[in-house]
Amino acid sequence: MGINARLERSIVNRQADYSTNGKTGGKLAVLLPGLGAVGTTFIAGAIAARRGLGAPIGSLTQLGRMPVSADAPDAMPPRIKDVVGLAELDDLVFGGWDIFEDNCYEAACNAGVLTRDFLAPLQEELEAIRPMKAVFDPAFVRNITGPNVKKYKTKMDAAEALVADIERFMAQNGCARAVGVWCGSTEVFVDVEPVHASLKAFEAGLRGNDDAISPTMIYAYAHIKAGVPFINSAPNRALNTPALVEMAEQYGVPFAGHDLKTGQTLMKTILAPGIASRQLGVSGWYSTNILGNRDGLVLDDPGSFKTKEESKLSVLDSIFRPDQNPQLYGDMHHKVRIDYYPPRGDAKEGWDNIDIFGWMGYPMQIKVNFLCRDSILAAPLVLDLALLADLAQRKGQSGNQTWLSYYFKSPQADPGEGVVHALMAQERMLFTQLRILADADVSVDHPWDPAILPNTDSRELRSDR
Ligand SMILES: NC(=O)c1ccc[n+]([C@@H]2O[C@H](COP(=O)([O-])OP(=O)(O)OC[C@H]3O[C@@H](n4cnc5c(N)ncnc54)[C@H](O)[C@@H]3O)[C@@H](O)[C@H]2O)c1
User: Fold this and answer.
1) CA 378, 379, 382 angle in degrees (round to 5)?
2) Which of 166, 183, 221, 385 for a ligand 1 pocket mutation test, highest count of atoms within 8 Å of Cβ?
3) Which of 95, 244, 349, 361 has the most neighbouring CB atoms within 10 Å?
């Protein structure tokens, strides 16, 4: 059967899904620990999009189409959301936690990403979204403090309070399902300690207030306990601990992370694969950013910056493979800086200087100056991840969802597997999995084999003719 025919059939299957098991119907709670710049930009934008007041640009789930045109070049490929059956924007109910008491409208105004003119028609709906009290520990985020925090004796009490919040929110809002997307601050770097080694050790650590258990881990634990998928938009350590991976698998809950791939790293993972493809050498890649929002303030603390730095540095090695190409990349200097510079607010500016060399070793330079809006790039990723995590859950997936690597700066690999950073390779992983989720009959030898992927799919296209 041709690809288009299979996709058509999967649209029918998806409709059957709606009518038979009812699991894709009903409201979906989207719960965000952290209602700051990213969280409020996402919520306000999603509400605006469903009212037709703005376009969800940057969102693959809303605008993207399945890449199936090669065997029918003139046909309009179907939209992803029509093929795989995603929750509709109208079915989303937004909630979250923050250490500040500001409602979502006030927080969006303070974040200063979206203009007050844009927010005005949304004001009433945004004001109704009030943050639940947060689980917060100043040892993990040192540069901010706020009044809207839970009091608890043990970290286990905190986790149980979060489970109760999730259940109460779902009941009060008539939600059939929920997803959690961490949009809170970057925490200080945490090593994997014995307390993270197994679920048993972790639960003992929660009861004993172990210092190495961070708020992000407590939120992740609570979501899994409530049977709710959890996405980590920050570089914070959470589900990349054996304990929480074990728990997610045991409870049958999908998760993905870490750290949204938005500005500079997005550019890196677009450019670097091209440089590598041309067999050009790189002697240095110097990246610097100025950022003036609250995220920038938090990252001004060396502990939080180290977490971010680890996340950003991992990217180039996996694309250039200096172990395989020592002549081209064996002596590459990679440096990343972020400077807090309040006048810029959320309008981040990134500079990259790339020292490359070509034929006979002659040096050249590439300069990239990206004047981006951090949260404008991040918001559509939060939407996509919420909808795709819900899809994964409905399709019975659990544990680490590596096919969502496309969205992350520091994607989590499965044990013994390499991390894929190159954006187009990540896109192929994503589409392969979408096809598998859309139509269980799509048989693949190895899901990430580029030979069977949609936009390089010579083998399958041949067999379709
Ligand atoms: N903006 C981007 O493009 C981008 C890209 C990748 C990753 N991120 C990450 O996303 C996260 C959010 O970024 P942002 O720009 O919205 O930052 P922000 O500072 O505007 O918002 C974070 C919010 O989290 C709250 N918070 C902190 N600890 C909390 C806790 N324990 N529980 C509940 N709330 C808590 C803070 O009060 C704040 O309101 C950061 O970790 C950032 O590094 C952002």
Assistant:
1) 90
2) 183
3) 95
